[in-house]
Every structure is written in C-alpha cells, then in structure tokens.
C-alpha cells in the first residue's frame, strides 16, 4: 500500500503491446529503484477502432515482466466480469476515470478485494467534483476494502492546450478531507510528454504521495497514447528531479 511517508512512482506503458515491450520497460523501471510497474491489458478507448488491449494475454506478459524484475504489477479493470480474473495476475488494480461512477464495478471490486485488501487506485472522473470522487471511494471501502488510493488525473475545462486541466489543488484538499493517499496521473492530464517532468515536480511539491507516469521504449510507435509517454531516459530524469523535492518534504522514493 502507498504510504504518506514515501513518494511512490508507478510507471510503465499505457498499453501492454508485447512481451518484449513490457520486459524492456520493466527492466528500466527496476533499475531506477521503483516498486510498481503498470500496464494496460484492457484499454477503454474513445474510438472502437483503436487498439483495445491484449486482454488476458497482456496480463500474463505484465505479470511475468513484473515478477522477473521484482516489481509489483498494476493494471486497470473495466468490467465486473473481469475483476476476479485480473486479480489473479496483479498486486494493485486501477479504476479509470470513465468508471469512477460505475458503482456496480466499485462494489464488485470492494467485495472481491475485501479479504486480501488489494490496493485499488480510483481515478477522479473527468467531470467529477471532489465530493463525488470521495463518495465513489466509499463504494469500495464500505464493501470491505479500506485500501483505496485516490488519483487526480485532470478535469475537463475550456482549456485545450493540455489534454485535461490538472487540478493540483485537489491534492491539499484531499489531504484535508480524507485519510486516503492521493497520487497524480501526470501523463493523462497533460497529454504531451514535454510537460510531464515540470508538472511532476509541481505535484510532488503540492504533497502528492505518488505519481502515475507512462513510459514506452519508442513513444512514436506506441499503439496507445504515445504523445504523452516518456522514454526510459526521460523517466530517469523525472526521478532525478523529483527525488530531492520529496526528500525536502520528508518522503523517500519508492
């Protein structure tokens, strides 16, 4: 579980595309001393013609890569029918922005993770208030699993220069209103790789307990969200620049 005493950087490709791809990224993540490795096996895409993920085959690649390099695997679950199967492969699950208000899914996750208390990342809905987000988290906690991690990932406003508007004010507000940890998905909020490192520094300075960062060996050839993906060398630079900020705030890199 993510601790408020750590800065936890959860990183990996937006989508699992092949065994070779996840092995290469997992190796890079491991060499930076990070703990969690993420990758999407089921991809919620706006267009039905976009890459939808490798599904269970992708989960196998993700689990193998994480195990090979001593990392904990993280992935998104989108459907109540997939929850039990996904839990067989990963150490932490994620609920995406489109499903924050899918209360049947949240209740199912809460019930199936109640015994093992598997950590659940709950992303903020793209048009959700902080109050609605916190109430959504209670569908999981009241079902028996208190290990929810809130994830700010940007909200919809009139601004179009970035993919969404990153609401870093949510970090101190959540710290005041809730005891749950809060992380920030910089990649989806910004949508452009050149903004990822500056806003990661800002999120850490605001008090975030962790970052969610997308990495791809060759972002220009990524099947999903390549524009917002860092290269492994850029991830190394992000860690180099955020670690001292975290240390000033009394946090350790995890």
Q: What's the quick description here?
A:
Helices cover 37% and strands 15% of the residues. It is an alpha/beta fold. The protein has an eight-stranded parallel β-barrel with strand order 1-2-3-4-5-6-7-8, surrounded by six helices.
Strand content: 15-25%
Order of helices and strands: EHEHEHEHEHEHEHHEHE
Largest sheet: 8 strands, parallel, barrel
Q: Which descriptor suits the 3D outline?
A: globular
Structural class: alpha/beta
Task: Give an account of the 3D structure.
There is one protein chain. Helices cover 37% and strands 15% of the residues. It contains 9 helices and 9 strands. The longest helix is centred in the last third of the chain and has 17 residues, at 232-248. The mean pLDDT is 96.
Keywords:
globular; 254 residues; alpha/beta; 9 strands
Describe the secondary-structure layout.
Layout: E1 6-12, H1 19-31, E2 36-38, H2 56-68, E3 72-76, H3 83-87, E4 92-95, H4 103-112, E5 120-123, H5 130-141, E6 148-152, H6 170-177, E7 182-185, H7 186-190, H8 196-205, E8 210-214, H9 232-248, E9 252-253
Parallel strand pairs: 1-2, 1-8, 1-9, 2-3, 3-4, 4-5, 5-6, 6-7, 7-8
């Amino acid at each position: 579980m993510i601790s408020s005493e750590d800065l936890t950087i959860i990183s990996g490709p937006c989508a699992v595309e092949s065994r070779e791809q996840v092995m290469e990224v997992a190796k890079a993540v491991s060499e930076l001393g990070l703990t969690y490795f993420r990758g999407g096996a089921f991809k919620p895409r706006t267009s039905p013609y976009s890459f939808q993920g490798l599904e269970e085959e992708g989960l196998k690649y993700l689990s193998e890569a994480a195990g090979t390099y001593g990392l904990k695997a993280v992935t998104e679950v989108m459907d109540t029918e997939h929850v039990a199967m996904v839990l067989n492969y990963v150490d932490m699950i994620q609920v995406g922005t489109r499903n924050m208000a899918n209360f049947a899914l949240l209740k199912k996750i809460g019930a199936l993770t109640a015994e093992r208390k598997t950590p659940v990342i709950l992303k903020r809905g793209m048009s959700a208030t902080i109050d609605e987000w916190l109430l959504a988290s209670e569908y999981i906690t009241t079902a028996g699993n208190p290990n929810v991690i809130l994830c700010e990932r940007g909200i919809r406003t009139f601004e179009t220069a970035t993919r969404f508007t990153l609401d870093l004010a949510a970090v101190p507000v959540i710290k005041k209103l809730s005891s749950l940890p809060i992380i920030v998905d910089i990649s989806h909020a910004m949508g452009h790789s050149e903004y990822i490192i500056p806003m990661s520094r800002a999120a850490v300075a605001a008090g975030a307990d962790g970052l969610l960062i997308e990495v791809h060996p060759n972002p220009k050839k990524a099947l999903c969200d390549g524009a917002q993906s860092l290269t492994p060398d850029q991830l190394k630079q992000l860690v180099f620049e955020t670690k001292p900020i975290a240390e000033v705030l009394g946090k350790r890199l995890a």
